[in-house]
Amino acid sequence: MSTIVVIRHGETEWSRTHRHTGRTDLPLTPYGEAQVRQLRRRLASLDVKFAEVWTSPLRRASDTCALAGCADVARVEPNLREWDCGEYEGLTLDEIHAQRPGWNLYRDGCPGGESPEQIEHRVAALVSELRLATGPVALFSHGHLLCALAAQWIGLRGGDGARFRLDAAALGILGVEHDALDEPSIAAWNVNEKLSGTPQVQVAMGRRRSDRPRLVSTRCA
């Protein structure tokens, strides 16, 4: 079973202002581009050459993939696109709660957009394919989708993605224990520049037990 490195895109204007961004195809901000340059160095520190690189078709993810040096080897994967926020597209959480108190994306979904069940179905297709991978895989995608993916990877419901946080230009590492598909694990999560003053990636990926090997991976260009 191969290691999966999940990567959220860099900052956009709407992520900066905490607006729900699904299908709207926004570019990275200049700060977001700077975040990705830092991300590229973090990925290089993994000393990995990825067997496969998948990216969401949305610009903020595909541009992150390109700036990280992976565009030449990437495939566009439609199932990595962000949760469609429907009528809540572009709204902040406070604005949504003014219309619908207590609303929660992972529990309630979005009118005119995708339901939690639709996201679970989409993520299940990704997980099934990722479990067949024969080498390390990098995924460039979006916060809500990747949190649902992490939850389903370890056997939770997609709605349990609400328990995870993945900041802009942060990464996570999914794997398994004892090379066993029935022991899925998360080796690192929300690793970003703010958290990695010490080599946070190496700390999170170090041996937790004597039977855990270190990650060996392939580099983007």
Walk me through this protein's architecture.
The protein has a single domain, classed as Phosphoglycerate mutase-like (Rossmann fold, 3-Layer(aba) Sandwich), CATH 3.40.50.1240. The protein is 33% helix and 14% strand. The protein contains eight helices and six strands, in the order E-H-H-E-H-E-H-H-H-E-H-E-E-H. It has helices spanning 13-16, 30-45, 59-67, 93-99, 105-108, 116-130, 143-153, 200-205; strands at residues 4-8, 52-55, 74-76, 137-141, 171-176, 184-191. It has a six-stranded mixed beta sheet with strand order 3-2-4-1-5-6. Helix 6 (116-130) crosses helix 7 (143-153). Mean pLDDT is 89; it is low at 196-218.
Instruction: State the major sheet.
Output: 6 strands, mixed
Shape: globular
Proportion of residues in β-strands: 5-15%
Order of H and E elements: EHHEHEHHHEHEEH
Give the termini separation: 24 Å
Name the CATH superfamily assignment. Phosphoglycerate mutase-like
**Tally of structural domains:** 1
Fraction of helical residues: 25-40%
Radius of gyration computed on alpha carbons: 17 Å
CATH topology: Rossmann fold
